[in-house]
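dumping the sequnces here before i forget
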Amino acid sequence: MKSADRGILSEHDLKKTSNKIVYGIMVLVIIIMVFTMLYPISMTMFNGLKSNQEVNSFPPHLIPQEWHFENLSKAMEYIDLPMFLRNTLYIFAGNMIVTLVVLGMASFSISRMNVPYKKAFYFFFLMTLFIPATSYMIPNFVNLKELGLLNQYAAFWLPAGANTFYFLLLKNFFDGIHPEIFEAARIDGASEPRSFFTIAVPLSIPIFATLAIFIFSTAWNDWFWPSLVMHSEEKYTLATAVYKYVINVRALNTNIKFAILFIVTLPPVIVFLIFQKFIMRGVALSAVKG
Amino acid sequence: MNQTASMIEQHPAIPESKPYKQNRWKKNFWGYMFLVPAIIIFIMFMWVPIFKGFLYSFYYVDFVKGNHFVGLDNYSRALSDPDVLKAVKNTLYYMVLCLIIGFWVPIAFAIAISELRKFGGFVRVAAYLPFVVPGVVLYGLWRWLYDPVGPINALLTTLGLDQISFLTEPKWSMISLVFMETWQQFGSGMLIYLAAVLSIPRDWYEAAEIDGAGVWARIRHITLPSMRNLIILMLILQIIATSQGYQSQMALLDGGPNNTTLTYALLIVKYAFTRLDYGTATALGMLMFIVLGGLGILQFKLNKEDN
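..and the predicted 3d for all of it:
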């Protein structure tokens, strides 16, 4: 038998009845798991398309009896979703650019440019990992306030360059590029910035894509920090706006509530389904190294 | 190797009499230039807040009239507040619950899913999907699922059991939150474990089977030991993460009912943004740092061994 064809169990194991039963139970548990994963998410979608009376009926059922697609347009009218979407995308784009420029250059310098005392610089960046983020969350806020950055996008863009986790991801990636490529460029007379921008950057598209996904999901999901930093409504991100105006509001009809939640869920789910292979490989690789 | 190359490159151009220091500065000019922006940003947005956190824990922070020094007042206020003790207890309870309810789930599913002959890809996507759903959607969704007239209670009624008010009953509130978070997050942990399970050479199982090891023996003596380092690392990461947890407690219950879901980090947030006492909040943060700092170093050491 080819060794690739087996896992922990072999074909032979599955001929025994006791193993068959255990395997059957295992498959059943996985099926239940998949169901409990998909049911609440599809419920979000279908609840957004029911009449309010049907959402609140007991016991609940999955598929709507009558379809109310006008809920979606009502949801769009209830809060200014396009504005909040634009704010979220602003933050995403700015964070992305700052991360790539600031951390990309720094990690390239540490990884490939052989500066003296690079261990000390590396340690300077790495040290911040030992300090739990929550313990300096309040001083961080006070600091932003004292810098006069509150209620400005810069309060997100600039600190995006101070992310040790992304720094490590980039550095690990640059470490994996063959040094000979840069040697060759140097011998051919390329300056350091040139070898960074014309050789390292194009080679790093995969890691930039992984970072883009992380940064996107942070910008899309984070509701608490933006609600502290941004205090005027026209600068709220999507998640903050949903938290403030949808989750904790009792007066809103449940079906409209779900329609809004559905609209907010859709983009990340679509992005995930399109890039799923890529994202899941990224998760498995990166989370361990963080 | 880098050095050889640059020496060859520079040798004809630079006379030997030139001082070494200047030479080195020139050679590394771009190297430093590439580091400068990151250093400035790390100082401004990481090290300054961390340093201010230390400093302000001895100050009364007042944005209008200016800060003034109060010595150890913040610390004594923090330590004499009965809420702090309650919050520490709640946090420990939350951490233990996360271990009991949540920690083993991704490991078990990673092993099970690695054994699936078909639909493995679909199951992975399904398991990871909740992780993609934004947190705020999760809160809205689970508030409805846990509702006295929601689907879970409907299921309990059909099974002939009593209804449970998952969120408003103090006994259940924290458990319900942990259950919700496990549901959301186990997918990503599962993927990490799955990569480890799949990297174990299949031949080992083959050899063990020939030696007469049963299925459980193979899992216990081959699969789990191979993942040992990863499991320990994930354990520490989970402890670090759960000891700082506050978002779902805040969003769903705001620390209630009757402070049963008031975690330590949530108390820090409340001190700062409800009581507007930034000094005490910072002092509480410092106390947290002292306790958790050791764990961070441990994680770093293990991580290094792992790579």
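Confidence is low (pLDDT under 50) at residues 1-16 of chain B.
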